[in-house]
Each structure stands twice: as structure tokens, then as C-alpha cells.
Amino acid sequence: MAFRRSRGSGLAGYSDAALLLARLVIGTFLVWSVWDNIQNSPRMAEFARFLAGHGFPYSKWLAPLSVWAQFACGVAFVAGFLTRWAG
């Protein structure tokens, strides 16, 4: 994949590269931010207690669901899954 820059267009010619970079950074951040909850069950329990403390019902089920959904979305962003459809 080559990123072509049109002559005289300024930075607008790099819009594809900028979108790719943003997608990779955001996806990597999503995966990185939940990795400790996935790897460490005491951290997942701490997150469940956090949710319960803020009044969320069923926090023991919502905590893993939330963590795994964020992980899956991060992987999907990095892989580019449905990004053309979404944008």
C-alpha cells in the first residue's frame, strides 16, 4: 500500500496515512488498557468491585464483558475490520 501525495495539496494528501495511524494508535491503546485485566484475575475482580461501587448491577458479569468487548474492538481497529464501512 503506497500513500501518494498530490502535488500542491499540502497535508491533505496524507489523509489516508493519518487515518491509518489514528486507527493503529487507538486500537493499540484499547488493547493495552485492558491487557492487565485479562492477564490478572485480581485486577478483574478490582474492576468488578469498582463497577459495583458505582451502582452497576451484575458487576461480576459486566466487568469481564466490558473488558473483552474493549479488547475485541481494539483488535478489530488494528486489523481494520469494517473500517471502510464505518467511515
Automatic annotation (TrEMBL):
Q: Which domain of life is it from?
A: Bacteria
Q: What is its main location?
A: membrane
Keyword terms of this UniProt record: Membrane, Transmembrane, Transmembrane helix
Q: Which Pfam families match?
A: DoxX (PF07681)
What are the transmembrane regions? 12-35, 61-82
Show the coiled coil region(s).
none
Keyword Transmembrane found: yes
InterPro entries given in the database record: DoxX (IPR032808)
Where does it localize? Membrane
Q: What's its membrane topology?
A: Multi-pass membrane protein
Look up keyword Disulfide bond and say if it applies. Answer: no
Record-given protein name: DoxX family protein
Q: Which organism is it from?
A: Sphingomonas agrestis
